[in-house]
Known about the structure:
Layout: E1 8-13, H1 28-43, E2 47-52, H2 60-65, H3 70-94, E3 99-103, E4 112-113, H4 116-124, E5 128-132, H5 142-153, E6 157-162, E7 167-168, E8 180-181, E9 183-185, H6 186-191, H7 199-207, E10 212-216, H8 222-227, E11 234-237
Parallel strand pairs: 1-2, 1-6, 2-5, 3-4, 3-5, 6-10, 9-11
Antiparallel strand pairs: 7-8, 10-11
Helix pairs in contact: 1-3, 5-7
Amino acid sequence: MDSLKFHRILLKLSGEALAGEDGFGIDPRRALDIAKRVRNIREIGVDVAIVIGAGNLWRGRVGLNQGMDQATADYMGMLATVMNALALMDALETLNGVTRVQAATEMRSVAEPYIRRRAIRHLEKGRVVIFGGGTGNPYFTTDTAAALRATEIGAEVLIKATKVDGVYDSDPEKNPNAKLFDRITYIDAINLRLKVMDTTALTLCMENKLPILVLNLWDETGLSRALRGEPIGTLVDDDE
């Protein structure tokens, strides 16, 4: 009997997940650690697509604070996500995983162009697909890119992997009495400004009834337990 609750997922990672101890750059050991977690869930039969941010390499707001044009800053961030995607691809292939990087902006020497039907076909063949380049447009975050790609490939859940156990009503690092939500609606997450994802991403998930599961990436068994339907992290969905 199939024990999996979800068979196709979009995993959203922050760029900081690849960073070293100082929070910047790419640490191959961290990339390999993430790759092992992805391999483990791929081996139980889950189709895995990934969107990764760029905060470890470039923070657009730093450029904006220095007077940089926002579109330029955003395009630089898109390029940084492709660098992270390639690092994660290399780590997965070190573990004999089969993967493909697809970029929203054309760069054929290092990545396939994003083509929805090709991405789905890769997933059907058991390949891990890593989406780089955001949506290909400035003014949109990688959260929105994750919501968009998850919807396009027919993912059953968008998993946002963080460094905390789920969504809290305030910063748990600053407030020891912060409350952890087991479940919350899209609307409440937006109205309470809980920073689950940006408003555009949350709205896109809400309109397409795509659940969001927020959990701790560094919990060694967290991903596999979540995919089997065990209560873990915070589920963001409708109140139906």
